[in-house]
Automatic annotation (TrEMBL):
Principal location listed in the UniProt entry: membrane
Residue intervals of the Immunoglobulin V-set domain: 24-113
Organism, scientific name: Lates calcarifer
Name of the protein in its database record: Immunoglobulin V-set domain-containing protein
Transmembrane annotation, as ranges: 130-150, 179-199
GO molecular function terms listed in the Swiss-Prot or TrEMBL record: transmembrane signaling receptor activity
Localization annotation: Membrane
GO cellular component, one term: plasma membrane
Keywords tagged on the record: Membrane, Signal, Transmembrane, Transmembrane helix
Family annotation (InterPro entries): CD300_family_receptors, Ig-like_dom_sf, Ig-like_fold, Ig_V-set
Residues of the signal peptide: 1-19
PANTHER family found in the cross-reference section: CMRF35-LIKE MOLECULE 3-RELATED, POLYMERIC-IMMUNOGLOBULIN RECEPTOR
Amino acid sequence: MLNTHICALVALICVISTAAVIHVSGYEGRDVNVSCSYGEGYESYEKYLCRNDCGNSDVLVKTTEAKKNKYSIYDDKKRRVFTTTLSDLSSVDAGKYWCGVTRTGKDTYTEVRLEVEPGQAVQITARVRLRVFIVPAVLLLILIFALVMYKYKCYKVQGMFDIQIHALNSLHSQANTHIYIYIYIYIYIYIYIYIYIYIYI
């Protein structure tokens, strides 16, 4: 079909590189896209991604089936680019691949080198999530503190006209107590959210 046994024996003759080597990198547990272009006039031809000598058993996925196991392929005929998606990457996925276009006679190939790195993307995502949670928590703490201070000042102004000095001092003490309570509560919430995200996300 794609390569005969003769092609498997003389792979260097059958493999025709149509472009420079494509270098792709991805992270373990994530997906990666491998995009390969092809020449004008091959829009209706079958495309595929393969490994090793690209024999029939080495073909991972082809446009006539669109999806196979962890591989899926899409051919954008307008841009003359077909893209293969490799899902749930692992270290064994690293290595050399070939983007192939089926032709009469010799198929055309473009070499692809895939590097798979440890799950740094997950760590980056966790950091982003951490910031997303921490920033609103800090803003909420500042807002609560501002509201408490505003309420306290309102009580203080009202007390200058309506209550005696003793009552004003008592209110002042009570307001300070409330302020400290609010601050302690929201600091505790902030620390709890930080620890939870750091450990579980």
